[in-house]
User: What shape does this take?
Amino acid sequence: MHGPASPGWLLVALCAATGAYCLLRMRSSVEEQRRAAGGDALMGFGMAVMAVPATVFTPPGWAWPLYAAVFGTAALRALWSGPSSPHHLHHLVGTAAMVYMAVAMAASPGAHHHGGAGVPLVTGPLLLYFTGYVLLSGTRLVPVAVTAGAGAVRWGDRPELARACRLSMGIGMVAMLLAL
Assistant: This one.
């Protein structure tokens, strides 16, 4: 990611913490939550790696195609599992956005430092989608957090924390698309 190092490191920390919590969510007793948490963990850690400031580490040329292949596989898996929930569709859009960013970075190696790598006709709709997702998930988070205090619930099964993770990844995606 280009730009000042401090926001880049904050984004790395946010995405890595989100990925780590998603690993905890994979211990849920509900299979659907485990599967969704695995995809979210991959996204969180992938975004953290992609957000490392370019002043610290510039990936070799082969890293971006590998990155695109990993997230392309995740996108195919999300597509293959079918749209059983709105989160599957969101995961598909998120993995496709990661593939798009990796391809844009591979196609324009100097853009990792100077920006302008993305295609505005693709970046714009992705920015609109993730901005809308952040706003919508933020409004959905408030009622869940207010009513979530009833009973002892395992960390992996807390819906307000899962939504907070997805909200933070959405914010991170907006920041990464703006930096593209």
Remarks:
- Residues 60 and 109 are 9 Å apart (CA to CA).
- The chain is about 75% helix and 0% strand.
- The mean pLDDT is 82.
- Residues 120-147 form the longest helix (28 residues).
